Amino acid sequence: MDLREVAGKLYSVAPADFIARRNAAAAGADRSTAQQIKTLRKPSASAAAINALTREHPDLVGDVLQIGSRMRDAFASRDRAEIRALTQERQRLLQRATEGLDLSPAVQREVEETLQAAVIDPAAAAAVRSGMLIRALESTGLEQVDVSDAVALPIDIEDFPAPRPGRPKSRAGSGGGRAAEAGDETSAGAGPDESGEPDESDEPDESPSERRERQRRIRAAEKVLARAREDAEAVDDELDETVDHRGDLESERDALQRRLQRITDDLSETRAAERELRSRLSDAQRAVREAEKALRDARDD
Question: Which segments show compositional bias classed as Acidic residues (predicted)?
Fold first, then answer.
């Protein structure tokens, strides 16, 4: 079994079982593959939830990601009505995708943010479809999604293509045909950005410079948050490794203690036997001396 097959199996288990399963997989592999297996990082709770969702409900995930292609077409054709409709549809699909997941509010939000990023960015979509996410993804809607170190193994976007968009439902007020899937995601004078947020003309209380400054602060805060999460996940991985190592050492200690107890018992028995033999030897030597004396006395007579 090659590394990618092993990774596919590992990232299908619950995070709590990941380290043990990874160690077992490494133990059964050749040295080179084992070393590579040991470098596979434990997924965060949100990444594990996304991986499970991709594996167990691929059609639903496909529907979510398909919105991305349709929205890019709508932006290319500046079809504001279609953009609004797709934004609403996207929200419905995101809600469906996360319904029934037993997650904390924070993890639930990360799952939604990851799916949102996958809708907007093809690289993020490929990362989600790989089923090997190790951390959540985020998007501001203005820049490419950072997928570096987000997937356990390197992937090629072409290996995980987004679902081809189907024919959208007709809606009153929708514009004409869409441009081919390409072109700028936003254009001067276009409406909302890909995240579905209104543009400056829809927000008269916020000037362009204020909007840019707000987005700059958001991006800076998101980068700090991403780094903090990565650091926390790295520490979590190290903690898991340390706990496993401690368990191994405790098992080894217990085995050594049992062996030491057996040796101590054997030593006590051996010492007791030694004392018994020394006592018997003393008695035997005394008997020899008495016999020798008796022999001498007999000869003297």
Answer: 194-207
The partner residues of 133 in beta bridges, in order of sequence, read: 151
Which amino acid is located at 107 in the chain? V
What's the angle, vertex CA 196, arms to CA 143 and CA 167, rounded to 5?
A: 105
152 in a domain, yes or no?
A: yes
Domain total in the chain: 1
Inter-residue contact 67 to 86 (CB < 8 Å): yes
**Residue 151 bridge partners (DSSP):** 133
pLDDT digits (tens, 9 = 90+) for 157-215: 666 655 554 444 333 333 333 333 333 333 333 344 444 444 444 444 667 777 777 77
Instruction: Please check whether residue 107 lies inside any domain of the structure.
Output: yes
pLDDT tens for residues 122-136? 888 899 999 999 999
Per-residue confidence (pLDDT) for residue 166, from 0 to 100: 46
- The CA distance from 209 to 200, in Å, is 10
pLDDT at position 69 over 90: no
The answer to whether residue 294 is domain-embedded is: no
**pLDDT tens track for 28-43:** 888 888 889 999 999 9
Is 281 within a domain? no
Residue type, 32: S
| Domain of 155, in residue numbers | 43-164
CA gap 176, 40 in Å, rounded = 48
Q: What is the token pair recorded at 184?
A: 């700028």
DSSP assignment string, 104-167? -HHHHHHHHHHHHHHHH-HHHHHHHHHT-B-S-----SSS----TT-BSS---GGGSPPPPP-P
Measured distance CA(181)–CA(162) in Å, rounded: 12
Rg (CA), the chain: 35
- Residue whose tokens read 């022999």: 295
